[in-house]
Design brief:
homodimer, 214 residues, Dihydrofolate Reductase, subunit A, nine-stranded mixed sheet, two-stranded antiparallel sheet, RibDG_C (chains A, B), DHFR-like_dom_sf (chains A, B)
């Protein structure tokens, strides 16, 4: 079986930004509101952070529950892990996700600043410095035959696209304009030369773009 | 966790038939051509019977790979298992699927005619006589906390719908007219009073109807 590198449930604004400007401890997505960007997933029965019963089991639920399907490791950028820039001043910060991170696999955080690995529940965070191809090789080995999820942010997805390492992408375009921030694309058409694409509008208002290699 | 009863990847013709007329050993779907009805799934990368590499990884692939997601048992009608009618003359017939059936769980075949259970690879077939509610109870217990798939055919799906036991349905409407056969519905609107519904056209030509309880 091929081990794919997959982008899953990555949300961008209608103008192509994965996050807004001005990331801080209080605002992990900068001026973007993550609740609005992720509303389509949050309304589904499979949303892992759901506290009330119910939730939809339609199209958006398929994408939400597919998030971890056959995934054995995640790669993310340093800014997805932390608002901090530069060398780690201490190791108190352990990510935005509390004691039960939603990954349940090894996670490789790309950073130039070394830090020891640590484990929270069934997720272990490793801090790695290297090219996209090198980090992917480490993540593939950790995934033990399963696929690797490329978790973002937008800048990291673009780096892996530039290195032609991405096999499939699911990008949900939310009906929100951000105007500025971390850009994934100017238009999804930028990917059409290298990828097949299905464009699937959801009743929730997002449009799912599904790309796979030609 | 609730254990759902789910209809998954059930294909009907544009006029609402799950299979044609005149089932026989050579034609499990009667005058319907299963290759045409299932073409949307057969073209995907996740199709379990795929012999050549490749295959699409777009919308239809999500449904194909979701077939076994969190499923712990299947319920099927006798006509999905065999073209035979009446008491079993012998036990040589072991289904249409060869030595590696695609279920990988216990399967409960609804029949008035007793027969001993048997196992092929990781699928065990049980033959059970009872009401839909009784059979569902057996399947739920066997599923050990996971969901139960209702595999069809159309008549069996209708029986479980009439007993109000179905939680979710994914029905793929193929661009094929059959004119006669085992009918699931005259129109999908028959279910709208009891179920929410997303209608999702696929570039492959099928239209996916996703229903979940109101």
């Amino acid at each position: 079986m091929t081990q794919l590198l997959r982008v899953q449930n990555f949300v961008v604004s209608s103008d192509g930004f994965g996050a807004g400007e001005g990331q801080s401890l209080e605002r992990p997505f900068g001026h973007a509101d993550p609740a609005t960007m992720m509303a389509w997933a949050g309304a589904t029965a499979s949303w892992p952070n759901r506290t009330d019963p119910g939730g939809s089991r339609g199209l958006d639920d398929y994408f939400t529950r597919d998030f971890s399907h056959n995934i054995g490791a995640e790669i993310m950028g340093a800014h997805k892990f932390s608002p901090h820039r530069g060398p780690w001043e201490n190791h108190e910060w352990q990510g935005w996700w509390g004691d039960e991170p939603p990954f349940h696999t090894p996670v490789f955080v790309m950073t130039h600043h070394p830090r020891p690995s640590f484990t929270l529940s069934d997720t272990t965070f490793h801090f790695v410095d290297g090219s996209p191809a090198e980090v992917l090789e480490q993540a593939r080995e950790a995934a033990q035959g399963r696929d690797v999820r490329l978790g973002g942010g937008a800048t990291v997805v673009r780096e892996f696209l530039d290195a032609d390492l991405v096999d499939t992408l699911h990008v949900a375009v939310a009906p929100v304009e951000l105007g500025a921030g971390a850009r994934l694309w100017t238009s999804p058409e930028e990917l059409h030369e290298r990828f097949h694409c299905d464009v699937v509008p959801s009743p929730s208002g997002v449009t799912h773009h599904l790309f796979w290699r030609r």
